[in-house]
Amino acid sequence: MRVLMFGWEFPPHIAGGLGTACYGLTRSLGKLGVDVNFVVPRAYGDEDQRFVRVVNASDVNATYTSAPVDTAEQELWRRVKFYEIDSNMVPYVTPEDFEKERKAFEESGCNAIHSQIGGDVWKERYTFSGKYGANLMEEVARYATVAAQVARDLEGQFDVIHAHDWLTYYAGMAAKRVSGKPLVVHIHATEYDRSGESVNPEVHAIEKAGMSAADMVMAVSHLTRNIVINRYGIDPSKVVTVHNAVRFAEGQEIEVERGVKDKVVTFLGRITYQKGPDYFVEAAAKVLKRTKNVRFVMAGSGDMMNHVIRRVAKLGIADKFHFTGFLRGDDVKKMFAMSDVYIMPSVSEPFGISPLEAMKSNVPTIISKQSGVAEVLDYAIKVDYWDIDAMADAIYGLVTYPALAHIFAEKGLQEVNAMKWDKAAGEVLDVYEKACAMAK
Asked: For the whole prediction, is pTM greater than 0.90?
């Protein structure tokens, strides 16, 4: 099986669990003999390519014309160009306007090099940031243009297209349009998870378009599968659940020296509405009313950071609360090594790899019932994200009673060691084969 896969990040350059999941999955697919070309907006050259070939979209010369070849392609580009309305660069420029437009585009953080190769046909190369900044919608649209070119360049070298999350759905659709190959979209999170009921209509529209165009849809949990079916109206027969797994790179155990004797309770993730950081703060305040021998660490960054800092100060617990900023790689391992309890109080979590990483590090874990990972774990304490009393009780129990913490750490480690990416990769391969059979 040969796969053309589109993602937005790949280790070691990641912003969250999506890149980690992509690496674990592609590594195990490679072990199964699956040939993967993994396209990212921007590659840095230090990615692990033992099991996957990483294609840098910023190195691709995209060729296109002002006259799409058929009605279906016209509809696709109409959708894509909708997100280019506020762009600082238009698709077609005269040589006289090139320098002026190039300067404006560079100031926007996304560069392009143009050349006309005949008639109304143009060749263009974009330098993507690969980030999640102000130009995100523009980069999503540009990425779709480049994806079509990648599919042309690799014609005859892939059997199925795999697109991860909404950022790459139009890329997957474009690749399907030019190649005729089946499309599988992978739902790691939906807009309802990220924003609750206040969904971004543009993102929602991209998600629905991608799911509708796909031959098969993979959700990371039954929770997410139900959202896909009930909120997006996708045919249940083409939506399957493939649970994530966990993997730490082989190597020596990390030893850390702690500067405090207090127990350490850790939140690690984006400090956004979805991850429930405010509930973590409220539970921390309740625990500190019962015991002073505990410290709370919030590792991450996000749009709720200032709100959380102000709340910590108002509750009078700043001397027991620490902010590390965003962590990656070995710093994540060090944080887990320092932790006595890990908690993921997400409001809506499609899956959640970080609890598995914590348990792999022998750390007893508390997770919200509103998470996909709750479907596959028996030895994590589960509470409703909004029940800060139950959350505080669970934290207090684990930091106060060593026997309880030991049981959850020991049994949790055994449980998570059985959750292999190899199993998930086998299920994904089955989905590929089904998509290919449906497309015939």
From this structure: no
